[in-house]
Write a structure and sequence with these properties.
- The protein is an alpha/beta fold.
- It has one domain: Alpha/Beta hydrolase fold, catalytic domain (Rossmann fold, 3-Layer(aba) Sandwich), CATH 3.40.50.1820.
- Helices cover 37% and strands 19% of the residues.
- It has an eight-stranded mixed β-sheet, sandwiched between helices.
- α4 links the parallel β5 and β6.
- The longest helix has 16 residues.
- The mean pLDDT is 93.
């Protein structure tokens, strides 16, 4: 199903989908996917959640999957937030009446964290999986300055590619990712790279403003987003209820690793703990 175009989200039509249990959900999950992927890759995630009584609502971000936009590029980071606003607006009222939980993975973790700085009152809790809060190699001041220049001078120029081998230790997952026609393989553009760095700095500088319950999950062998980012958030957010779990040996997509059932159980057990309070 496509969300209607919104002027805020650069006038784009955004594709969304949802999964619901037969009974009224115990909680409703707002799922925010990562860079150069799409919501269809979360079928297994969603099936686990509905078996445990949770509804899941998600979308393909601007420029991703079945949504309109340009692969690898973003006119402004705010279009991602506009998409989440539009997605929340279409969740049925009875499901919105249940606790709303944000789950963000990778770039989706950064989108989610920056969104929560202004919208955390909408949510009962948040879970960030391998969030892009810190770069695996911290860019120099020169590179940050160059990124800002390129963002204006050549905003659509590809500047950073991702190594698909870092996605998962499961080679079938990697093969499926590479063969997926909705995974573009596009390099991150100069504009998106600059916007990501700007929002990483924003989240880091204002982390203490995040006070809702938060679970941080990260593979300690993640080569695509730095586990140090999750450690930083755990140490600096203002939440009284917070938990960090680093999974030894796991790569970036912990929901697609061989241990995915353990990771998903950790997530849903924690949600049950939070909503039982």
């Amino acid at each position: 199903m496509a969300l209607p175009p919104t002027s805020a989200a650069a006038g784009a039509k955004l594709y969304c989908q949802s999964w619901s249990p037969d009974q009224s959900p115990k909680a409703t999950i707002l799922l925010v996917h990562g860079y150069d992927e799409h919501s269809g890759r979360y079928q297994y995630f969603a099936e686990h959640c509905i078996r445990h009584g949770f509804a899941v609502h998600t979308l393909d971000h601007w420029g991703h999957g079945k949504s309109a936009g340009i692969n690898g590029f973003v006119p402004d980071f705010s279009v991602y937030h506009d998409g989440l606003d539009a997605l929340i607006d279409r969740i049925p009222a009875d499901q919105l009446a249940s606790p709303l939980i944000l789950v963000g993975h990778s770039l989706g973790g950064l989108i989610g964290a920056s969104y929560l700085l202004d919208k955390q009152s909408r949510f009962e809790a948040a879970i960030l999986s391998g969030p892009a809060i810190k770069a695996t190699e911290e860019p120099s001041s020169f590179m940050k300055g160059l990124s800002k220049i390129l963002s204006k001078a050549a905003p659509k120029m590809g500047v950073l590619g991702l190594d698909a081998n870092g996605v998962s230790r499961d080679q079938q997952v990697v093969a499926d990712y590479l063969a997926d026609p909705m995974v573009s393989g596009s390099k991150i553009s100069a504009r998106l790279a600059s916007e990501m760095m700007r929002n990483m700095e924003l989240v880091q500088s204002q982390a203490n403003r995040l006070t809702l319950p938060m679970l941080l999950l990260h593979g300690d062998q993640d080569s695509l987003t730095a586990p140090a980012g999750s450690v930083f958030l755990h140490e600096n957010i203002g939440s009284a209820e917070k938990k960090l779990k680093l999974y030894p040996g796991l790569y970036h997509e912990i929901f697609n690793e061989p241990e995915k059932d353990e990771v998903l159980k950790d997530m849903t057990d924690w949600i049950d703990h939070i909503i039982a309070k």
